Amino acid sequence: MPLLLQPVVEADAPRLPDIQFAAFGEDPFMAIMFPQTPSDDSKQKAVERTYTDFKDPYITLMKVVDTDLDNTIVAFARWHIYRLERPESEWNTEKKRDWGQGINVDVADAFFTAIQQKRKRIMA
């Protein structure tokens, strides 16, 4: 099972939500955020957010492929890497997400808002 680390390309985006939901599917917090099986709509919204990530200079997407499985993606990661100091206006911008159907929007918004606030407190 030789594994390779590679950059994610746009063609990979439709596969990533399935990997994410499989990786965190047993997590109790994810069960609160996604009380139902993730809908096709919520998966599509995740794909659209990934396409947006490609335009963000602070986001780096990487994947791990298994060469014994015809380069099937077996894992991925999204890193926020700030190579330059970010202006205050960027720290104060709240990203609103369109989650799609089947998600507990209040919990998801609260979770990701808390992450953004913590990131600002530590890094700004």
What does this structure look like?
- By secondary structure, the protein is an alpha+beta fold.
- Helix content is 42%, strand content 18%.
- It is built from 5 helices and 3 strands; from the N terminus they run βαααββαα.
- It has a 3-stranded antiparallel β-sheet, with helices on one face.
- Strand 2 (59-66) and strand 3 (72-80) form a beta hairpin.
- The longest helix is centred in the C-terminal third of the chain and has 19 residues, at 105-123.
- The N and C termini lie far apart (41 Å).
The number of distinct helices, counting runs of at least 4 residues, comes to 5
Following the backbone from N to C, one meets helices and strands in this order, namely EHHHEEHH
Shape: globular
The average pLDDT is 86
Structural class: alpha+beta
What portion of residues is helical?
40-55%
Euclidean distance between termini CA atoms = 41 Å
| Proportion in β-strands | 15-25%
Strand count, sense and barrel status of the largest sheet are: 3 strands, antiparallel
Strand order of the largest sheet: 1-2-3
Rg over C-alpha atoms, rounded to the nearest angstrom: 16 Å
Topology summary:
Blueprint: E1 3-7, H1 16-24, H2 28-33, H3 40-53, E2 59-66, E3 72-80, H4 88-91, H5 105-123
Antiparallel strand pairs: 1-2, 2-3
Features:
single chain, alpha+beta, 3-stranded antiparallel sheet
Quick take:
The protein has helices at 16-24, 28-33, 40-53, 88-91, 105-123; strands spanning 3-7, 59-66, 72-80. It has 124 residues and is of the alpha+beta class.
